[in-house]
Every structure is written in C-alpha cells, then in structure tokens.
Write a structure and sequence with these properties.
The structure is a single chain. By secondary structure, the chain is mostly helical. It contains 2 helices and no strands. Helices cover 53% and strands 0% of the residues. The N terminus is likely disordered.
Amino acid sequence: MAPTKKSGKDERFEDQLERLEEIVASLEDETVGLEEALGLFEDGMKLAKSCRARLEEVENRVRQLLETEEGEEPATAPLEGDLTTDPEEEPVW
C-alpha cells in the first residue's frame, strides 16, 4: 500500500474518509499479511482520530453560528435514529 501524499489537516476530510474505507477493505482481504495488516490498522486508527477531530471542529463551528446575539444556546435535538443514543438499537432511517 502506498502512503497517502498528504496527511492531517492538509488532506481533505473526504479524501481521508475514502482512504479509511480503502484501509477497511484491505483489512477484510484475507491475503493481507500480518505486518501489513498491522500497518494498515495503525494508519486507519490515525485517520479515524483525525476525521473525528475534524467533525468535532465543524460541529463546534455550527453551534457557534447558531448561537443568538443574546448568548442563548441553540435549540437542538438528536436526529431520528441517532446512533449515539443506544448503539444496540437498530437505526430508524
């Protein structure tokens, strides 16, 4: 597997997500050796952490934009089928 050309904040979120999906597909391939699988797993964990951090940044920016001039918190509600409520329940789409 060739290393990504960019890393961290230089790479677009969508590109990181696509690379993460490629890593998962490679890990599901039974022909991948142990050492290569370990390297892929490490890369995947780094990408997942980076993607999560970027999503949190975006969420914080959206919250800031939604705040009113009086400093009130925006009215938010979880999305229907939000997986953060109970990971055992099947999502409602």
